[in-house]
Amino acid sequence: MGELVAEKRLRYILSIEKKKDSFESVVMEHLRMNGAYWGLTTLDLLGKLDTVDVDEVVSWIISCHHHDGGFAGNVGHDPHILYTLSAVQVLALFNKLHLIDADKVTNYIVSLQNEDGSFSGDIWGEVDTRFSYIAICCLSILRRLDRINVENAVKYIISCKNMDGGFGCTPGGESHAGQIFCCVGALAITGSLDLVDKDLLGWWLCERQVKSGGLNGRPEKLPDVCYSWWVLSSLIMIDRVHWISKG
Amino acid sequence: MHGRPRKPLKEEDESVLSAKAEKLHSLQSQFLANHQNRIYTKEALDLSAKLLEINPECYTAWNYRKLAVQHNLSESNSDSDASLFDQELKVVENALKKNFKSYGAWHHRKWVLSKGHSSIDNELRLLNDFQKADARNFHAWNYRRFVTALMKISDEDELKYTEKVIGVNFSNYSAWHNRSVLLSTLFKRKAEGFSHKEKVLQEEYKYVHSAIFTDSDDQSGWFYHLWLIDQTVKNDAPLLVSSWPSHGANITLNGNNSLHGSGLSLLNSTLSDTKTLPVILCFNQAVEGVNSSTVVVKSELLKEDLVWKPLSTNNSSTAQVWVVYLNMGNMKLQLSKTYSIEINIGHSMGILSSNGYHYGAPSQITFEVCVQTAYTEPVDGQRGKLTSWKDNDFRKIDHFEESNPAVSADHHIPTTSNWCMEAIDEEITNFQDLSDCKIRKLTLARLLIALDLLSPQHDKRKNHTEEVLKLYTELMKLDPTHSLYYKDEHSLLLLQQITSSRESLIPYCHYYKDASETNTSYVCLRLQNLSLSRMGSFENLLWVQMLDLSHNELRSIEAVTIAFKKLEKGLTVNFLTGLEAMQLLSCLNLSHNKFGSFTALGPLRLLKSLKVLNISCNELGSHSIDTRRYLCSSPLAHSEVFAWDRFEILCGSYSATKFWEAFLIFESLNLTDLNIAGNAVADENFASFIVKVLPTLKLLNDEEL
């Protein structure tokens, strides 16, 4: 039974990759790089990464590489930190990081750090703690974390901490499981989890479980399976996952 | 998008969708071509507007529009500027109609506004519309904070706005959250009407009751209420909580060229080998700036300046526990003479908490040291003989001299103002009904703990610990989904109860083998079989040298956060006394618990004196996920330098991924006795590896090497 389900999942992912003309596909064309990350890592988990044409994927990724070091979501689009991480992650997955100039990518990310430690998504200046996580995660993979101002980056993330122990997009922003994953992840990679109020945040996170057993992203909102990832992985990072039932 | 179930498409729908796809695809291709060729004509702009109306998530199109604005601005006069920006705002509004959660759309609007365009009324009107459409839209709330800051709308006015919103529907977490942000700022800058926190908080308690009591399952008010409690009890200034030796202690050292002492015992071979006496200071929060100027140690014994070290598990310069080692070997101590050591803390400025508060009230600790001649046999741990943990090797203690440093229970609790206690007291009356309501019981438990925390030592009001322990047990049944949360809280409180005074500690204190009060006494604190799932109260255990925590349900020995912390916006304060504070600890039994990874033993690395460790019958090597991984200082968390070379030599052909964590923990320890039997990881390979890592080891798994 387990085999059948895995087989179905594999076919689903491969079919999405091919079905570039459906409306869903077209409307998400600009973030294909993210889609590649989610789809390919899933294949890897299923042990089926070899069903993909590595060279085709890699050359497509390279074609999304801009001269400033960033990567776009798809061919013809502008570079952005979101797609830069996905590109690096996929190349790392295939062990092809040597095909890019790591220093160039690093410089792109370094150029996006602001004075207060925050990170912009691109040259147009949108600031969000998601980008802090992306920068830290990406540079950690490239082994160049020391090129950014880590102390300021951590300070900025902590400035986004709320009354409930959670984190928002920007200072004063409401706690949200996705943002919490990003902030906790960034603090984990930089060895700064002692600055997280683990008991308070742990309680907020374990209360995301609703009566049906699913998880929501904020109090009094509907559950969604994506929150299972953001909430559970956050709980694991702060060692409070045992506070939630397994049912 | 969330909440939309997937349904298979009908044939008509399929073809309609197919046509839509083609149209969008064509739009996007044309747009990308215009973008590539930097075409900013009206036609091109209209095309991008059409695209964004259908697909506001196409981020490159928003970039393009900004480029177009910049391009067209430079070529025009200031009259048409306004209409240029107006057009952008219109495009944003249309896009938001399609998807009011589009990051790109909201950011574009911010970009336009930051150019100095638009009016307050216009933006507030837009926000009010969005509030009606979805009161929890965090993009709209973020934008509101952006606009009010940009247009300098007062925090007081915004506070009134949250009241308006909550008035419409109390179930608006976003509004309560915003309220906490606004109040924090108003408190911080002591704005008019907000300088007396008490009055404001008392009103807020009444206000949030509507959210808590109307629907007990609605979480909107829970976290706000908890925040109010924290604001009521928190103490900003760093203060000393406990120390070892404690004030008034008498330490008797035995001469004969070896340093053994009542309360220091022969267990502590490290201290007698190095001839050092530790002095441990434990604060109520992490501090920096503890040095020989801010902590002045006066004694005829001391010739040189002392170097205080922060006990931090991640090599930080701030810590809750600081230690200094007095080099007794260098001092010429006369026999039978009593020396006094006086420690003055905080008489000069410099000790600071993480959010900038200076040390509270200056304090002083005095203890005495005396040297006698009697020499006694070293005990098991030092001679390489097996340390026994069996019941018959321990004898209960009936009585203990106050001045004996072996069991110290002297704690400094900061005094608090009356209004805190009154406020908590009053709140308690609102939660005391006997309904089977989870949030009421949990809140009552928290309030009672707060009350006990605030009660001054001399006023021995009826302690509420028993009542709260009962509440947690009831909660485990009432809310089984979160039973381990309540169990952890229960364990913490139980430990607090046991370690709070000498009277409560004595029943758990035992003499080991031949020890007694008159001869080299040392005491084992035996806390086994208490169903403890969590450790805590380390600030009360600085004196412990031998500790038995076996047969519990512990998963880690981590730094603990006490129930009430500071949640200042900006920087945080950590209540982090972990096992690393127990600098005298020499023998530790953690067998028959639930330790699932070596990283869970991280704090042990700071225990210089640890010689005997029993971690048998745990779950080391049984779990594929390590929940302590990033909480332990390690190369993965970029906070530790790892001795790769030595590791590679010792590891040899064994699996590095299996052993690197064990190496991380053990390579800096000087254990003489280790028991790891009964763990999945402990096969022959591992045993021979660990023996190489620990050259001082004499006993492994209860067998001599």
UniProtKB/TrEMBL annotation, chain A:
Cofactor note: Binds 1 zinc ion per subunit.
Cofactor(s) essential for the protein: Zn(2+)
Keywords: Metal-binding, Prenyltransferase, Repeat, Transferase, Zinc
Catalyzed reaction equations: geranylgeranyl diphosphate + L-cysteinyl-[protein] = S-geranylgeranyl-L-cysteinyl-[protein] + diphosphate
Annotated CDD domains: GGTase-II
GO molecular function term, any single one: Rab geranylgeranyltransferase activity
GO biological process annotation, one example: protein localization to membrane
Pfam families: Prenyltrans
EC number per UniProt: 2.5.1.60
GO cellular component, one term: Rab-protein geranylgeranyltransferase complex
Domain spans labelled Prenyltransferase alpha-alpha toroid: 6-246
Principal EC category: transferase
Assembly, per entry: Heterodimer of an alpha and a beta subunit.
Function, in words: Catalyzes the transfer of a geranylgeranyl moiety from geranylgeranyl diphosphate to both cysteines of proteins with the C-terminal sequence -XXCC, -XCXC and -CCXX.
Entry similarity comment: Belongs to the protein prenyltransferase subunit beta family.
Protein's recorded name: Geranylgeranyl transferase type-2 subunit beta
Organism: Medicago truncatula
UniProtKB/TrEMBL annotation, chain B:
Sorted UniProt keywords: Prenyltransferase, Repeat, Transferase
GO molecular function terms attached to this record: Rab geranylgeranyltransferase activity
Superkingdom of source: Eukaryota
Gene Ontology biological process: endoplasmic reticulum to Golgi vesicle-mediated transport; prenylation
Cellular component GO terms, alphabetical: cytoplasm; Rab-protein geranylgeranyltransferase complex
Catalytic activity of the protein: geranylgeranyl diphosphate + L-cysteinyl-[protein] = S-geranylgeranyl-L-cysteinyl-[protein] + diphosphate
Pfam families in the cross-refs: PPTA
Keyword match Hydrolase: no
Enzyme Commission number(s): 2.5.1.60
InterPro entries attached to this UniProt entry: LRR_dom_sf, Prenyl_trans_a
Annotated function: Catalyzes the transfer of a geranyl-geranyl moiety from geranyl-geranyl pyrophosphate to cysteines occuring in specific C-terminal amino acid sequences.
Family label: Belongs to the protein prenyltransferase subunit alpha family.
Name of the protein in question: Geranylgeranyl transferase type-2 subunit alpha
Species name: Medicago truncatula
Lineage: Eukaryota, Viridiplantae, Streptophyta, Embryophyta, Tracheophyta
